[in-house]
Design goal:
four-stranded antiparallel sheet, elongated
């Protein structure tokens, strides 16, 4: 066994909160298989340094829409925020920001997946909505391309 002090990461999750959640369902007469499409984005809300610690907040934005043929069955709009800290003695500002965008987003995606699955299940959506796995590297690349263009 290894002691936690020997292996603890320099980047830590402090907590999360749901900033916004909207589930808009429609009662429709259409029959058939539904299709669902998602859009993902994120925003680094804050990065600060205090007493040899970095503090960062990142927001994951998820929007989903399910349709049967051309009729909207339901829409999901979620903004999940996460707070993270980092050891400023071991991490540069850029490295902390990179970890916030990589590790932070991955953490929020897992939390959001569980949250959406639970809420849609309790809302009578059957089967409940499972957010797909997201390639965070591609998400960051596309975000960088959008901000340049």
């Amino acid at each position: 066994m290894m002691k936690d002090k020997e292996i603890i990461a320099d980047f830590q999750f402090l907590g999360n909160r749901v900033d916004k959640f909207v589930l808009d369902t429609k009662l429709i007469e259409e029959k058939g298989r539904s299709s669902i499409a998602f859009d993902f984005d994120y925003e680094v809300v804050e990065v600060a340094e205090d007493n040899a610690r970095f503090f960062g907040i990142i927001q994951l934005i998820v929007q989903g829409k399910a349709k049967i043929k051309n009729k909207i069955l339901f829409k999901i709009d979620l903004k999940m925020e996460g707070a993270f800290s980092g050891n400023a003695e071991k991490l540069s500002h850029q490295k902390f920001t990179d970890m916030l965008e990589m590790n932070g987003l991955i953490t929020l995606l897992h939390i959001s997946r569980a949250y959406v699955l639970s809420v849609t299940s309790q809302s009578g959506i059957n089967p409940p909505v499972k957010l797909p796995m997201v390639n965070v590297i591609k998400l960051r690349e596309k975000k960088a391309q959008q901000s340049q263009g």
